[in-house]
């Protein structure tokens, strides 16, 4: 459906959606659209003030919207465990688990609370642990979906099993590409497991193309007071290749709600190089189809997260 928009979202009444990083950008737009379609939405975010601002805007757009906040720091496995426990205690099931939060191209190497390289930790490892913690509640839903937001950057990514945490030689962009490839491989392996076990769950990946959000500035400026060359390059490309955060959220929303969205697939924009446009099935680069790598990464992730 190349002209799919938020107007095509089926009614989401009585469905419960949990969205990470939904205080801004693509996550906010996805939460807003789901709440507008009738879903109960939980915004899981580290920044409570910004999350409350987002909730106020969503309620202004949809009076009576059922939107709540849950504190979550994906760079802390303790925070992941506590937040997942609190959510599991308050909802009977989770119909839509949307793994959206992320950080990009941090110029210098930083570590999470648990010693993971920041991009790998926040974008992938935290979401792996988050999903595993909430999987029983997801499995309790009638037709559950886990939607994991990857990136076009997965095409340049490689999983460096010899140095997953970039301790030997840190490079911002390859580290980001690895983390977004990892999110995609996780989505694919989760769906493979669901099919093999006969679960009702669909695990689906999405990417926003080049959507203008805070992602392009927050990470590249971490620890610096001036724009990076990467940030300036992205800014130069915006008029030619970018789309709004609302448009960038459409592949995520399609993966989460469209009846025809398929498990084990990825959805992204239909334009040139999948940079912008309405959602369609996206291209997954050839090296991301290696199931042995899916499994190896999964096993290592279990070890890293306990």
Structural account:
The protein has 10 helices and 8 strands. The chain is α/β, with parallel strands linked by helices and 306 residues long. It has an 8-stranded mixed sheet with strand order 3-2-1-4-5-6-7-8, with helices on both faces. Strand 4, helix 4 and strand 5 form a beta-alpha-beta unit. Helix 4 packs across helix 10 and helix 5 packs across helix 10. It starts with 15 loop residues before the first strand and ends with a helix.
- Residue-averaged pLDDT, rounded? 92
Helix content: 40-55%
**Envelope shape:** globular
Total helical elements: 10
Structural class: alpha/beta
Query: Cα distance, first to last residue?
Result: 41 Å
Gyration radius, in Å: 18 Å
Main pleated sheet? 8 strands, mixed
Strand order of the largest sheet: 3-2-1-4-5-6-7-8
Unreliably modeled segments: none
Beta content: 5-15%
Q: How many strand elements?
A: 8
Instruction: Give the topology string: H per helix, E per strand.
Output: EHEHEHEHEHEHHHHEEH
Task: Give keywords.
306 residues, alpha/beta, 10 helices
Entry summary:
This protein has 306 residues and is of the alpha/beta class.
SSE map:
Layout: E1 16-20, H1 25-36, E2 40-45, H2 48-61, E3 67-71, H3 77-90, E4 96-99, H4 118-139, E5 145-149, H5 172-197, E6 202-206, H6 215-218, H7 229-241, H8 245-248, H9 250-257, E7 266-269, E8 279-281, H10 291-305
Parallel strand pairs: 1-2, 1-4, 2-3, 4-5, 5-6, 6-7
Antiparallel strand pairs: 7-8
Helix pairs in contact: 1-2, 3-4, 4-5, 4-10, 5-10
